[in-house]
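Hi W., the magnesium ion complex you wanted:
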Amino acid sequence: MPCNPGLTLVNSTVWVQTGAEFRAAALSTFAAATRSLDAALADLSWNVEEDGRSDPSQPPAIVVDSDDTVFDNTRFEVRSLKLGKTYDQDAWNAWVAEASTDAVPGAAAFLAHAKARGVTVFYVTNREAKEEAGTRQRIANLGFPLDPDVDTVLTRGERPEWTSDKTSRRELVAKNYRLILLAGDDLNDFANARDKSVADRYKIVADHEAWWGTRWFLVPNPMYGSWERPLTGGTGTPCEQVQKKIDGLKP
Ligand SMILES: [Mg+2]
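Structure:
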């Protein structure tokens, strides 16, 4: 069978970019997040902090991931699949510099609601520190909240301890704010799921069963994510990774 890794993106990208079903799923996620935000503001004990405790006198904040949570990058995925690749670093850098990403349905209204209710919005992204300017530009262009006084765009490598594991960045926000909800498209936007097996990733989900849709809000992203790695190990050529995914499925 001839291998074109870019073709693995076709169905998922069609779904996210054109599917009414994706639109409905994203709107559902942000509608639920909006209801929970209001509930969290009325309940000072409400938080999503690691130790389950938070200073109720602190101002409220939320943490959202950027890419494919509030930013719709499907036009970048189209570039990749037309190159016959699952991902291309040079194409990504160009995409970020262009600052032309779209908004995920429901994201702008949710973020505007948070701002209107006095909640600070932090963007915890694994875009690199050097990509912060383009990212801020796009946040501003899309009309998403951007606090003028506090650095609310926390990029990977901006501080030495800010690795792709977002835990330390969530903890930093929690130090000064009552962190009330998280939104992301990847398990790592909620907990450290790096290099974990399928079973261990399921355990993270099970351990927080009551939080999904109430404190943790997932935007579906079938195009790419850390869920690929348990099957591919992150090694091998793109074509070998495609084969490992096929081999890793239950027949
Ligand atoms: Mg993301």
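The chain has a mean pLDDT of 95.

W.
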